[in-house]
Amino acid sequence: METTKPTSPYASLLRGLPAVHRLLAAPTLKEAAILLPASLITQTAQEVLDEVRSSILNTLENPPPYVPSESELIQRVSERLHRLQQPSLRGAINATGVVLHTGLGRARLSEEACAAIAEVAKAHSLVEIDTASGQRGSRQDHIQSLLRELTGAEETLVLNNCAGAVFLAVSALAAGHEVVISRGELVEIGGAFRIPDIIRASGATLVEVGTTNRTRLSDYADALTERTALILRCHPSNFAIVGFTEEVPSPELAALAHKNSLLFMEDQGNGTLFPMETWGLSGMKGSLVESVSAGCDVVMASGDKLLGATQAGILLGKSEPIGKIAKHPLARALRVDKLTLAGLEATLRLYRNPETARTAVPTLRYLTRQEPEIRRLAQLLARGIRRTLNDKAQFEVELVKESSQVGGGSLPNESLPTVCVRVQCFTANPTVMELAKALRQSTPPIFARIRNDALLFDPRTLEPAEIPLIVSAFQKIGTEL
Ligand SMILES: *Cc1c(COP(=O)(O)O)cnc(C)c1O
């Protein structure tokens, strides 16, 4: 059916637009054809023209629509083609101060981990081969002795991620049985990973005990039946219950489980290897070393949270339950990739000397960065930005005291004092939102915090070499104002 649209007063302008083939004849677009398929270039030119057409048609009132010139249209097509040639998944600058920013890929890896990944990626590798016999080996071997050495665990297993590890462990150890967990620990982790759902999906029955804020040893003891398979503790890593609270220490839960010939499992989540109080990070509760020594049969954690390594699900514990998990048919579906293993092994090696780990693992370096260093970086950045915006009175650039977040659903209570560069603009052009968008779309993309109509750049998560990149992005945006 024909629809009758009100005719735009500017419809005549449409006829003035060049045809697609005219745009395609431009030398810059002909050059692009060497690198990209002709159909993609035609489609892109078509899209640009369509957008201009619909913007003209949608302009019904004054001021009259803006009609780009032919050379401007060619420029737009060529910019879009340039963007198509860039990888979609590429590096970015994290000036948000959120150390484990999920959107920006959680943990940034150490130089050592990056080198190990590159080496294993470029060549064939020893992922599943034994050099002594020439026979097939296990990919777990590369990491097992290191994890044992660092945590004291009897047995270890590395899988694709922690959510998968929880699912597999409950499936292997408790399907058809009951899993006892405190009401205060029935958490949802990002991406709708909900502990109650995981337990149900694993074929086990959830038995909630205690209350949201207080759960005692007797609550657990009273819930145990002949159908119980395990007591589960899940660290509520992304929220905190404060005030009138009570929880049972892990060693007591382990003892209760073992007295009743049951298993005690802990989803430690954030992957802190050992207590970090010595580094002034007192808000961090629990660590893999503590869980193992508490007598956990199985403890699991993410590789790419506070451990600062690649995405992985790390399982530690006693030989028998871990062996059972490893033999479950679904274990193959959660197999860890060789690049992940290479990065994880290289990161763990750094932990042999805690001070080396603190400086070499970016997650730890950023978490323990002290204010004087952050302030120095902030001053450098502020000076650079001021220089690029020199005579533009609509901007104000200053240092402000702020706090950084750990992020990645870790340590909601821990806020780290920091010094940010605050950039405010007092005109409508550009607005703070537009400025933030221009930065996100620059090369490399830059992410800052947006707060009260200002942009905040937190140097906590920046490397010194990234500061000139932010300054030159401002330079480029400044010249376009
Ligand atoms: C983050 C987290 C998970 C999920 O880990 P992934 O590695 O992202 O799958 C599971 N449990 C806890 C307690 C967590 O903090």
General description of the model:
The protein is of the alpha/beta class. It has three domains: 72 residues, no CATH class; 122 residues, Aspartate Aminotransferase, domain 1, CATH 3.90.1150; 250 residues, Type I PLP-dependent aspartate aminotransferase-like (Major domain) (Aspartate Aminotransferase, domain 2, 3-Layer(aba) Sandwich), CATH 3.40.640.10. 40% of the residues lie in helices and 17% in strands. The strands form four sheets. Strands 2-10-9-8-7-3-6 form a seven-stranded mixed sheet, with helices on both faces. The chain has a four-stranded antiparallel sheet with strand order 11-12-15-14. Strand 14 and strand 15 form a beta hairpin. The protein binds pyridoxal-5'-phosphate.
In short:
The protein is built from 19 helices and 15 strands. With 481 residues, it is α/β, with parallel strands linked by helices.
List the helices and strands and how they pair.
Layout: H1 11-15, H2 20-24, H3 27-32, H4 38-57, H5 70-85, E1 93-94, H6 111-122, H7 141-151, E2 155-159, H8 162-174, E3 178-182, E4 188-189, E5 193-194, H9 195-201, E6 205-209, H10 217-223, E7 228-234, H11 250-259, E8 263-269, H12 288-293, E9 298-302, E10 313-317, H13 319-327, H14 338-350, H15 354-360, H16 362-367, H17 371-388, E11 395-407, E12 410-425, H18 432-440, E13 446-447, E14 449-451, E15 454-457, H19 467-480
Parallel strand pairs: 1-13, 3-6, 3-7, 7-8, 8-9
Antiparallel strand pairs: 2-10, 4-5, 9-10, 11-12, 12-15, 14-15
Helix pairs in contact: 4-5, 6-14, 7-14, 8-13, 17-19
The structure holds pyridoxal-5'-phosphate.
